[in-house]
Design a protein that fits this description.
By secondary structure, the protein is mainly alpha-helical. The protein contains 5 helices and 4 strands, in the order H-H-H-H-E-E-H-E-E. The longest helix has 15 residues.
Amino acid sequence: MKEPTLKMVETEIKRLDPKLEVDSKGFKIAVLLLASALIGANMRRLSKFTGYPLKFIRAIARRCRKNKVWIGGRVNSEPWFEKKLGGINFWLDVCVGKGYVRKREAKPIQTRGQAGNPIKEVR
């Protein structure tokens, strides 16, 4: 695989959403997340790679770590590549980076039978 470049990352984000303006915060966060999947979730390395100020990256990093998009130096990018919902999962993580949404762990739901007895657990 070729060494990733900023141009490659930006081109991919433009392909994913051609209407997203390059100067927008959403575009920059999408670039940051995709870059982090390629080079790791290290703020200084990401700043050097993207040219974005550390102050900007720090705010995104805080939200990404709190919501387990970034776990240590690793990026939880597996959901981005799911067959049916991968693209949606990526853009939801961009929304996490923007501070629009937070992730919550799903709790099992108990469904009840006719007599009120649990019949199965749904996740």
